[in-house]
Amino acid sequence: MTDTTRPPYAGTRYPKLAEVPAFTEFIARGWGAEPVPAPMVDGAAEAAASHRRRLSERLPGAVIVVAAGTARVRNDDCDYLFRADSDFVWLTGCQTEGAVLVMTPVPGGHDAQLYAPPPFRPGDTGFFANAAHGELWVGASPGLREWAEALQIGVEPLPALDDRKDLGGALAAGAVSEALVAEHGLEVSPQLGRNLSQLRMVKDAWEIAQMRLAIDATVAGFAETVREIPRAVEDGLGERWLQGTFDRHARTHGNGPGYATIVGSGAHAPVLHWVRCDGPIVPDAALLLDMGVEANSLYTADVTRTIPASGTFSPRQREVHDLVERAHRAGLAQIRPGTVYLDFHFAAMEVIAQGLHDWGLLPVSVDEALSPSGQFHRRYLACGIGHHLGLDVHDCSKAEYEDYMGAELEAGVVMTVEPGLYFHANDLTVPPELRGIGVRLEDDVLVTETGSEVLSAGLPIDAVGVEDWTKALLA
User: Fold this and answer.
1) DSSP three-state, residue 289
2) What are phi and psi of 29, to 5 degrees?
3) Geometric angle at alpha carbon 467, from 328 and 361, rounded to 5°
4) Which of 83, 207, 299, 313 could disulfide-link to 318, CB 3.0 to 4.6 Å?
5) Taking the mean position of all CA atoms in its chain, how far away is CA 365?
6) CA distance 96 to 155
7) CA 274 to CA 266: how far, in whole Å?
8) Which residues contact 114 (CB under 8 A, 6 or more apart)?
9) What share of the chain is helix, strand, coil (3-state, %, to 5)?
10) How far apart are CA 62 and CA 186, in angstroms?
11) Domains of the chain, with CATH numbers?
12) 444, 461 in Cβ contact below 8 A?
């Protein structure tokens, strides 16, 4: 029998509190103003304006629509933490969920207009009923006026986008929803995506400064992580403790990790994307750490070091590390303006193939291994030797081959160099003493007017330097 004296309002939805007049009237009043400035990184609005001008010059006369996207569902009614689409951020400096940028042709360029969801303030049903965006649930947020002042462009409420009748055939990119594409007749445009990737390949001074912040924070995060090795070993906390250590550092000193942090000890080190991190830290094994802080501007670092958990490499670990280091230095030596992007890849691969041949691991000659029809050495190095880096860890991925792999490097490109050797524990083609050893060296490199600069040079790359650095942190 139902107790009619006790209203069954266990939550905000079933039955709906919004349908209780006394409640909605009472919760709508008595709130003080709580203005919140738009969370913008210094210089982001000016950089975004420059980026829009560059895109406008590429696509004169085109109507352009780029969206920030929305948070993905993790499970049931819980979402993953929102991260705005990189193209949208590059063009706006804004990270507001659900926002849409429209660039409309005008004489001399494009007019930029942002459409964003207004916050749910007191008096709005969403204020108390929307657990994802209501200010009662998530805190005060900037209004459209604050965003307009920060972004230096017009900002309208998202529903006003429905009134636009001039978007048919507009070029769409970023995280534009299928519903928006269908409603306005947008054209999801590979051309627009390619142009954005091409433009993002060369970083401006502001972007390079953001990359330096991310990389410096990452270097510091490596030190914080290595200091926790004794606790991870002695208390049995394992790889996940080190992963969590870096992720906490990244969340404290930036937006968070730029990608899933990789911590691979012993037999896990050869696994290229070992993000489960559910194993122990083996005291006498090599420990591969692939980690990057994403700055608050969303520019990310991507750095890898392989260290001896004990402070000293075994002879075989040292031998593998030395070969990877030689390949790494050969790749770095190719980074300068005017060289073809892939030159660093081929230079590093030649060193790897020669080393594997010298160890008797290749069934063919070095030339046969390196030939397009051979590639035998790639059994132990199946991935590439590097990639562009920026707002995405694998930046500018919508570029075509001739834009990316076949292009000449120019000043302002930021890229990684990351050769490695991965001898899996169950690989019977290698001698037992090599099985379970994985080594990768990865640095973030800026192409300068005269050569290159290793932005992650705060970490050593030679085996002796790595050992000394590790021992100092473990002491």
Assistant:
1) strand
2) -115, 160
3) 45
4) 313
5) 39
6) 12
7) 12
8) 92, 94, 99, 100, 101, 102, 147, 148, 151, 153, 154, 155, 156
9) 40, 15, 45
10) 12
11) 17-197 (3.40.350.10), 202-474 (3.90.230.10)
12) no
Structure tokens at 127: 């204020």
Tens digit of each residue's pLDDT, the chain (475 residues): 555 566 655 666 655 788 889 999 999 999 998 889 999 999 999 999 999 999 999 999 999 999 999 999 999 989 999 999 999 999 999 999 999 999 999 999 999 999 999 999 999 999 999 988 999 999 999 999 999 999 999 999 999 999 999 999 999 998 999 999 999 999 999 999 999 999 999 999 999 999 999 999 999 999 999 999 999 999 999 999 999 999 999 999 999 999 999 999 999 999 999 999 999 999 999 999 999 999 999 999 999 999 999 999 999 999 999 999 999 999 999 999 999 999 999 999 999 999 999 999 999 999 999 999 999 999 999 999 999 999 999 999 999 989 988 899 999 999 999 999 999 999 999 999 999 999 999 999 999 999 999 999 999 999 999 999 999 999 9
CA 319 remoteness from chain centre = 32
Q: What is the dihedral of CA 123, 125, 129, 134, to 10 degrees?
A: -60
Q: In sequence order, what DSSP letters do the residues of 190-204 get, joined into one string?
A: HHHHHHHHHHHTB--
Q: Are 412 and 447 in contact (CB under 8 A)?
A: yes
Give the largest CA-CA distance in the chain. 87
Phi/psi-derived region of residue 185, left when phi > 0, alpha when psi is between -120 and 50, beta in every other case = left
CA 64 vs. chain centroid, Å, equals 24
Helices and strands, number each (H, E), in the chain: 16, 18
3-state secondary structure of 156: strand
Cβ neighbours for 386, distance < 8 A, ≥ 6 positions apart: 331, 344, 345, 415, 416, 417, 418, 442
Return the bridge partners of 174, or none. Answer: 67
In this structure, the strands spanning 73-75 and 78-79 are antiparallel
Q: How far apart are alpha carbons 406 and 341 in whole angstroms?
A: 6
The DSSP 8-state label assigned to residue 266 in this structure reads G
How would you classify the pairing of strands 293-294 and 171-174?
unpaired
Element housing 321 (H / E): helix 315-332
- pTM beyond 0.85: yes
Decide if 173 contacts 66 (C-beta within 8 A).
Answer: yes
CA 398, CA 281: separation in Å to the nearest integer? 38
**Alpha-carbon separation of residue 264 from 259, 276, 376, 431 (angstroms):** 15, 9, 25, 21
Contact predicate 171/189, CB 8 Å:
yes
List the one residue out of 467, 74, 456 whose CA is nearest residue 290: 456
Take residue 310 and report the two structure tokens written for it. Answer: 């004990």
| φ and ψ of 227, to 5 deg | -60, -25
